Amino acid sequence: MKETTTISDTASRRPAPAARGGRPRRRKLTFDRVTFFLAFLGVPLTIFVLFVLYPFVQAIFWAMTDWRGFSPDYEFIGLDNFTKMFQDDVFLKALRNIALLAVCVPLVTLTLALGVAVAVTLGGPSRGPVRGIKGASFYRIVSFFPYVVPAIIVGLVWAQMYDPNAGLINGILTGLGLDQFDTFAWLGETASAMPALMFVIVWGLVGFYAVLFIAAIKGVPAELYEAARIDGAGRFRMTLSVTLPSIRDTVQTGYIYLGIAALDSFVYVQAMLPGGGPNNSTLTISQRLFNVAFAKQQFGLATAMGVVLAVVTLVFAALVFLVNRLTGGGEGEGRRKTPGAKARRAAAKGGAQ
Predict the structure, then answer these.
(1) Model-level pTM greater than 0.90?
(2) How many CB atoms lie within 10 A of CB 133?
(3) 115: closest CA among 135, 134, 150, 139?
(4) Which residues face 261 on adjacent strands?
(5) What is the full DSSP assignment across 255-276?
(6) d(CA 122, CA 131)
(7) N-terminal to C-terminal alpha carbon distance within the chain
(8) CA dist list (Å): 64 to 87, 135, 174
(9) pLDDT by position in tens, the chain (length 353)
(10) SS3 state at 68
């Protein structure tokens, strides 16, 4: 009797057989499972809907009205604001400007940040174990310092440095014998306003991403660098063949965040070029939106511009993910590695037999 009871208890503790088709049967919803889902899924989802999705839907609604912003009266006008917006040459110029910023600023910033990170972590002696340069902590602090300063302060300081009459930059260049820069207006010329703005944005952000890449590179196994050095690879080759593939996801994340910052750039532009620059050469959508809303009191049209900026940002992020996927990153890379893992397991089984 005791053996029969033991066998039956053991059988009852076995996992339930899989359903037809090889899929496991659904587990019953118990009180613990329901409370777990409500606490860790329901609450964050509710917050996301209330503070992200609902305001976006509300913005789409106000973008289809002629709301003036300071009165409860408005009329529903459909897509008239969007039609008017895309017929505005100033808005189209702002759209081209942010497209240029989204391409150039992340590319230059990440390239410089990666160079600093590689030099700090892998720029040590060419013999012995792979290690960084001496005093790496000092260089990390120095490179990170501009990011600590608020963006509005950075913009105001550089606006003074670009001053054509009393600016530090013209003073240094003139002192070096370049007299053509005596009263050169860096922010007053169409050809130089946008590059000067990009330089300030890159200067303010490169330190943060350098520190981010340093942390990512420190997580790469040292054996990979040792093997590459044994094969005769130099620092540049190791950067392309070992470092970049290993921190690919970090680079992708950095590119998305930098692109979003470049698409906005309101603080930097408003501090240095509040009027949009000469011939609107540095005008951004956020700056145009601000002027339309508070100067012209056309909040419906300004909201339509905000909706377009949000859509452009989403498209930019999707393009970055798509390019990373098509070039072998993300899940595609994991799928390519899977057959090799299967082959190794098969070989191991064959050797065991």
Answers:
(1) no
(2) 14
(3) 139
(4) none
(5) HHHHHHHHHH-HHHHHHH-TT-
(6) 5
(7) 43
(8) 16, 58, 54
(9) 444 444 444 444 555 555 555 566 666 778 777 788 788 888 888 999 999 899 999 999 999 999 988 888 889 999 999 999 999 999 999 999 999 999 999 999 999 999 899 888 887 666 656 677 777 778 888 888 888 899 999 999 999 999 998 899 999 999 998 888 888 999 999 999 999 999 999 999 999 999 999 989 988 888 888 888 888 887 788 888 899 999 999 999 999 999 999 998 899 999 999 988 999 999 999 999 999 999 889 999 999 999 999 999 999 999 999 988 888 765 444 444 444 344 344 444 444 44
(10) coil
DSSP states along 67-96: --SSSS---B-TTHHHHHHHT-HHHHHHHH
- Asked if residues 91 and 285 have their Cβ atoms less than 8 Å apart, the reply is yes
Nearest Cα to 196, choosing from 271, 110, 143?
271
- Given phi > 0 = left and psi -120 to 50 = alpha, else beta, which region is 14? beta
**pLDDT tens figures, 137-179:** 788 888 888 888 999 999 999 999 999 988 999 999 999 988 8
User: Which H or E run includes 244?
Assistant: helix 244-246
Q: Which residue matches tokens 């720029």?
A: 123
How deeply is 150 buried, as exposed, middle or buried, from its count of CB atoms within 10 A (0-12, 13-18, 19+)? exposed
Q: How far apart are CA 134 and CA 121, in angstroms?
A: 10
What is the Cα 267 distance to its own chain's centre?
17
**Is the four-CA dihedral 56, 61, 67, 70 of positive or negative sign?**
negative
Q: Are 217 and 118 in contact (CB under 8 A)?
A: yes
Angle at 331 between CA 325 and CA 332, to 5 degrees: 60
Structure token pair of residue 124? 């040590």
* Contact criterion met (CB below 8 Å) for 136 and 121: yes
Q: Count the neighbouring beta carbons within 10 Å of the beta carbon of residue 191.
A: 8
How many CB atoms within 10 Å of residue 65? 20
Do the Cβ atoms of 97 and 282 come closer than 8 Å? yes
Task: Identify the helix (H) or strand (E) that includes residue 283.
Answer: none
> 227-237 pLDDT, tens per residue?
888 888 877 88
Sign for the pseudo-dihedral over CA of 169, 170, 173, 176: negative
